[in-house]
Amino acid sequence: MNNGKPIVLATFEDIQFELKDRIVKADDTWAKSLYKKSVSSERVNNIKAQLDMDCGRFDDVPEDANTKSELYAPLVKLLNSIIGASGNSKSRNGTRQAVSTKGKQLHKRVVESQVSPDIVIKATGSSFELPRAYRVPNVDAHIGYTNITTAIELRLDSTTNDVERTATKEVQRMCISAKEIFYQQPNRLFVYALVVTEERVRLIQFDRAGALYSPLFNYHDDPDTFIRIVVGLSSMDEAELGLDTSVQFQVIGDMKALGTIRVLDPKTNEFTNYKMRSVDPFLRREELFGRGTRMWDVEDADGTRLYVKDAWIDPNLTPEYIILLKAKGVKGVQQIVDYEDRLGRPYGEIRYFRPRCDPDYFPFVNKCFQRLVTVRYGVGITTRNKTEAEVLGALYDAIKAHERLLDSGILHCDISLGNILFGGPNAPDGLAGILIDLDLAIKAQYDKYPIDGRTTGTRHSHSNLQLKGRGRPCKPAHDYLDDLESFFWVLIHLIYDQVNHDLTWAHHLINTIGHGDQKESADAKRAFLTGDLEPSLIPEGWSKKCKTLVIAFHHFIDDIVIEKEEIVGEMDRVWDFSAMQALHSQKRAHYQEVLDIFEAALPAHRAPLARTSRHNV
């Protein structure tokens, strides 16, 4: 878990990579249709009547600007004229104001870049606050990604066009602002941005499926569409801005304060309110696309501490709450309290707020918003301020929980550092370690369907064979042995990545097995399993019994990998399914062997480990 703080700031090159194959051009009708239901033609006409226009042109906008600087003041004036005429500038719910950010640096938390928008619509209200830029040099203290509804970039009309390469670069630049808005406004569902010249405007949308942009259109020739977009982007209805209004903050002195998160019961159509224990989610993924996971620390009306998890999932997959309901009562597995599935609701599926696009241009994958409320446990598994016995005991109980889950017919498929929690203070027997995050879990049917091309999970703890087989025609289905191997890689991270040591090769190993390149990761893991692991190769600070555990687990996983490799070969042709089934028939023996390895080490000394650090990775 990242505890709400990303480890590495994204570069512009990272953004370009993240956007690859995720940018699509919408047709001419999209921008014209946006906000058409909420901003009526009558309202547009009333606003237009209050604006200075002459001969089909907004008066103050220069027709032949020579520099971008000439556009700031007239466009800010025009935007504020529209916002004021619409009635959006001030209400009991907040304020909206277009502001030039020329020469200002907006405080960034996820992107390493000097690029900031040229104009923003500054906002106050439930979801907005002043930027948290305390003692941060060279950033604006009054305007930031925490208190804007949208970001606007200015360009001279001669420097832009609808050529794909040009539009793509504009989307990439605006993605800097989009990533920051998503991160610093954690209840964001989608983000709109604008590119504006002295003649034309381009609308851009960012959501968890990708980015899309409109063709440029002349806003002097089509003032109705421009007015409608500006009114929508300054709306007092936060849902129209792309904010999740079921997350309600209090605002005290221009800063967010503890509020509530609501969960709708579809049967009674009534809400249950959960009180925030922190203004920020303790986990929020900084990636723009994907699940966009947020996890909040809350309590119910009785004061019982719980977790709320928000995520966007593929509606074609089995929802996590279905898996959790099946796992109810399974000891050592995350227990569900409440849930909300927004399938079929206007802001609950991306397809409802994204226009249809050419499927040949971009294979759009719809996503659905889901919220889970679960029992609260301890922190993610770590060696920090924990004894060796606590760490190994948590892993031991998590492995036992994994077997129970498998016996209930569910395979986890995403064993990782972030998905194993300590059971919390005074955890009952057998609950020292808890398995969470079943959003990738599947029905255990690897013997019924032995070949499966899917590879799910977290890269650093993927099994070697699942990585190696990705893209091959006869990759074996993910099975419980893959998950047991993932437990091994979690252990390796704890042993080598969270204590001080001077084993240079181990730092390289940890970096490589978590590398984005699947072949490098698979090769590094296979090489480590093939090599001899001696006690001298394990950092000091771990007991002799713990080192014996690591070596024995290493031997067990190596033997399993060899046996599976002999069965599946290069995975380029059909292999002997019965041989794999025979291996799986030893399931109970496999789990028992791993548990026995841990049991032999559990009586180890309970003194704290050497002072932990991650700086040497």
Automatic annotation (TrEMBL):
Q: SUPFAM superfamilies from the xrefs? A: Protein kinase-like (PK-like)
Q: Which domain of life is it from?
A: Eukaryota
Tell me which residues make up the Fungal-type protein kinase domain: 144-341, 365-493
Pfam families (UniProt xref): Pkinase_fungal
InterPro entries to which the protein is assigned, alphabetical? Kinase-like_dom_sf (IPR011009), Pkinase_fungal (IPR040976)
Record protein name field: Fungal-type protein kinase domain-containing protein
